[in-house]
């Protein structure tokens, strides 16, 4: 050991600083002996930085605490920001005291000469002082007793070292017990502060598990940064200054607001706004903010989140919502009358998060998240909640990011169908994916407000927005230190609930300009031309005449950027050639600044190939390799099997589900079997399973642990497409391209006979995959039969006569008539009976109905046409889009499985000599999973 320390040049630092002292770090109660077996070693070169090494008292362990203090030229004291200690709310006296202080403050100061905004902002200072006083008093009392106990413990330890007196040792144990009691109070606060509710959350998919799985928590520490001048800064002050300079430049990059600029923006927007809010819609935005609205958004806020600079977290507003929310509503309503928001309320702390795969020595490689004051977040959440219902009408369906009712898979499915259409029809096409630089942070405010005004947003709502963007300031937090405040002059702050909606609205004029430009050629679908798809600032252009279209796209970007401050990094924007000729590709490479991809392109987290037969190979095996690597690394963590199930739900399942939904191809059976086998081995730590997989997959209220069934979710990801085919879904644009690939409409395709399906179905990899899954699952899980009540009476190759328009005109949607529309009480009726009319049927109508009945009688198992629809068929008949589709369809598939009770229920019934009902078992399971929180 000595030789090893000598080779490594390590020194026992405590002995160096205390050469003549005699102290110990360990006491053996069995042998009643003291020894020093715990050491702190430092390098020779770092010895000069050591200021203190100390052996402390033994409190709750046989080992003493050792501490080492060092001073470095690179250290900088962290900036202290007050934050409410929410553990104070566990004391009923404190809760009552603060409630009384709030009531007294508002009663005494709510005078006519004080504006509601000032009254609200000043209450924070008053209550902050009260809370600081209470916390300081409690801390002083606790520290005073703790320090005295530590002195007594140290004195008794030294006495016991000399005498080994049993009486002294008994007194020592009593002192330690009291110290442990005091420490438990501090431990509770520490648990709250670090969000580590280990006893509650170690087996739940929450933040604690996320931190345990995180590879490098130290990634948040920034050792050095490259400044704008190119020099590398490593000292703390220089690092903070570099980030401040970068964000100061970023948030003041927009053009200066002038009347001439506003006029030019208006001229740009006028032909590019396709819809304005109606008077009624605009008026609903301007209604006074109510306490009920604030309570609704407050309920959705999560506890334990970092507060803004004022230090008041969500828990404060939830605890005193009856007192605070009416005053906050009054304060916010005063803003629309012209009272400005105080500067302090608009201040934010910017937390920087490194982007994956980026150079961490560059300021551009970090994502700025604004930590806003909680009351400001409630304010912006109410504004977002009001605006949200109208955004789908103001933003066309090309934009799928942050718009209610739209999903990322709408963009990926559209891109995949565009590739198939171009390849199948021989249309020359390329895909252009653009890289926007800090798009959210560069939005010019004049352009933002002119766009909102052009869309019909006006009055009080626009006044509220203007107040939110009235000279806000920010400080950058780097390695625990805060920069000096600086003013923000452009951008929508990431961390504000309103920002995604505002960004989608400001980008819509550009997207509309591309749609209207006749020189930009897209891909023809069944009913429209497809030019682009966007998820927030991630844009994908489908270009069919690149020699003309690409320069026009660049020109559109230049025109839009002059007003909106958007900047596109052309050299990082990528092109994927689908089927252009080699000569044209060489010409475009020489004339355009874009980067050309070789064989595949990354878009919204998936790989797009020119050949869709490679979709599985370039997407699924790489993801599974990454998941297996993670599982292998996490296998060594000390997590219970309950916790490991939580790991699957929190980390593994979302990544698989995203790929299932965005790349709906057939997966080899052995691939899914391998996933299921590997996940089971991870949960049981490579040992034999102790619980049946079927039991684990049951919901918690049914005796399981909701273990994720990957195979069932894979089936659900295809079945959701069948539902959207049948109902028209959310009107996603990929349906237009996918429907153009076959001669039979998508709504009819799953319900006709397999032998009647057109041959072009098999050439479409996505259609063929979904129909194969549907054919297998409909039979195995009893989702439907053939024939089905949903059998189409139009566009059915087996019934070419179709139902006459005069007969189907009164049957709901005349474009989608099914057998179920002609049945009542399990009996088939003529259309004129289902929907009575004053005139009798004509001869042609009678003949057409005879044709129909003849066709239906010729079908095998025709009695199935008159049965009640299954649960899945009812989903396909619904007039409302399916929400939470994967979960709903997974539950449908689970419900179709055998419903035999878990074996342990049978054993308990036998042991108790009674049969417990389903309600009793549900209560038992609920108490089992939630009882520890009571």
TrEMBL record:
SUPFAM superfamilies associated with the record: DNA/RNA polymerases, DNase I-like
Gene3D superfamilies: Endonuclease/exonuclease/phosphatase
Pfam short name (any one): RVT_1
All copies of domain Reverse transcriptase, residue ranges: 334-608
The protein's name in its UniProt record: Reverse transcriptase domain-containing protein
